Amino acid sequence: METCSAPEGYVPRGGDCDDDEARVYPGAAEMCDGLDNNCNGVVDEEIVAAWYADGDGDGYGTGAAMLTCAPPAGWAPAGGDCDDALSAVNPGATETCNGVDDDCDGEVDEGLLTTFYVDGDGDGYGGAPVGLCAIMDGYVLSMGDCDDARVDVHPGATEVCNLVDDDCDGSVDEMLRPTLYRDVDGDGYGDPSLTSTARCSPGGGWVANADDCDDARPEAYLGATELCNGLDDDCDAVVDNGLASNTFYLDADGDGYGVTTTTVTACAAPPGYADNGDDCYDLNSDAYPGAPGYPHQSGVCTRGFIIGGCDAPDRGDGSYDYDCDGVERPYSTRRISACGGSCTAEGWTTSVPSCGGTGSFKSCSLVSAGCASATRLSTCQCCN
Fold this sequence. Notes:
Elements: E1 49-53, E2 62-68, E3 75-76, E4 114-118, E5 129-132, E6 139-140, E7 180-182, E8 191-196, E9 206-207, E10 246-250, E11 259-266, E12 273-274, E13 300-302, E14 305-307, E15 346-348, E16 358-367, E17 370-381
Antiparallel strand pairs: 1-2, 1-3, 4-5, 4-6, 7-8, 7-9, 10-11, 10-12, 13-14, 14-17, 15-16, 16-17
């Protein structure tokens, strides 16, 4: 209405959004009354707050917030209570060492725990660490037990040789294990080249000494009886020492007789040696002292001579002295022209050939008709 003066019940300003409520008009102070006091289209703005259900009455609630400017009883203006059944537990509480998250920061007893160690064997030293408010049975302050199931194993224990780290220092049987030596042949003496420190005492093929020089022979070890065998039985680095020794002679042709030009001194004859030096020629086994017969290479040797051809050789050095008596002895030096009355004679009808030479040889024999003879040409003279 436009007029020169305001009639009763009119005012010079408009905009009242509830002209039946005196507390409602533009510019009025907003109150918590469920009305739009200042007519700005919003009810109770800047007065409504979030409220949380507070079951334990400690001033902190939990759960979803309720937006209101006039909360009912049992609601608190702050949330975050992590245990709304305990009034001592809320975001503003002081953390105490009690196994509970008193200040609701997601950590239990932070900064208040002491580290103790589980002592399963009761030896005063623990293994696994645990944070506790106070010491309890089965827990200790000392750490480092490397076997919490054995009361004799812990830091400070006496180390003994038992293949166990008794003192928990990371070393097993330190300075306690002896050096043992392998005894392959079981004679009680070890091979110095095969050692072990993996055992606390001898046994199982290992001994405490290194006095074997041949661990493949049980009869060879330090102090053993020296035998005449070309080996070092007593391990003194000397072969066959302390035994009676003899001179042996090289026997190149193996006829049991050696030569004096090559000798060895030993307790027994080595292979290829004889106990005498009596051979007169050591490259022919048919030549030796006392050798019998009249050696030849082939053909038929009849009473010391060869019939048909001549292959009666010298012994190898031009000599026919096979029996080593210093004499070249032909089978026959007899010459005959006729058999005579005995009818048993034999001999050369020509001059006597030298050793290995040939000539005509006559033999006589008694037959029923009387005396018979046979003359053979090119008969070879065998010698000894």
